[in-house]
Design a protein that fits this description.
Number of helices: 4
Mean pLDDT: 84
Largest sheet: 2 strands, antiparallel
CATH topology of the largest domain: Arc Repressor Mutant, subunit A
Helix content: 40-55%
Low-confidence stretches: none
Strand content: 5-15%
Distance between the termini: 62 Å
Shape: elongated
Length: 128
């Protein structure tokens, strides 16, 4: 995101969108530390509060987490949220949905295996 005297200063949503884009491009990877909020505020020529609001928005989406005294980091989806990543509710909900889908797929696989056994055998199928 470019800043210039002709352009209006970015909002917290603009800053969050810029960081999201860096996540999608792979410029920021899981575990990477985001710049200090004060440094980013200087870069964008905005107030510290705007950057903090952007970081909060990203945390609420489950994309980043903050550790007091250490900084703000990109969430690693391979790590459970209990390992110090205070991922947002979106991350937790997505993780729960994926677990439910995995269980459904496992059950469907078992049913398919039973059906294949019935079809492969010469015995008539029994309805349960």
């Amino acid at each position: 995101m470019e800043t210039s005297p002709e352009k209006p200063r970015p909002t917290a949503k603009d800053i969050a969108a810029d960081i999201r884009q860096k996540l999608m491009n792979g410029d920021l990877r899981p575990g990477n530390q985001l710049p200090a909020a004060r440094d980013l505020a200087k870069k964008y020529k905005v107030t510290l509060v705007k950057v903090q609001n952007a970081y909060r928005e990203l945390a609420d989406e489950g994309l980043v987490y903050s550790q007091q005294g250490r900084g703000t980091f990109v969430v690693d989806p391979a790590q459970p949220p209990e390992s110090g990543q205070a991922g947002g509710s979106a991350f937790v909900m997505l993780s729960q949905e994926l677990s439910a889908m995995h269980e459904t797929i496992r059950q469907l696989g078992e049913r398919l295996a039973r059906l294949e056994q019935i079809v492969d055998s010469d015995e008539p199928a029994r309805v349960q």
